[in-house]
Amino acid sequence: MIFNPMASYIIEDGDRLIALGEEENVSKFSQVSLG
């Protein structure tokens, strides 16, 4: 699966913390991938 960090998605109030956690994980993943 190819993850597109530029893809837009709606963040509902209940999912806000989850989305922030996902962003943090994506940032770490990107740093590892890009080296």
Task: Give structural notes.
The chain is mostly helical. It contains 1 helix and no strands. The chain has one helix at 16-34. The longest helix has 19 residues, at 16-34.
Report strand %: under 5%
Largest sheet, if any?
none
Mean pLDDT: 65
Low-pLDDT residue spans:
none
Number of strands: 0
Strand-pairing-aware structural class: mainly alpha
What percentage of residues falls in helices of 4 or more residues?
40-55%
Give the helix tally.
1
Cα distance spanning the termini = 20 Å
What can be said about this structure in brief?
It is built from 1 helix and no strands.
Topology:
Layout: H1 16-34
Pick out its properties.
mainly alpha, 35 residues
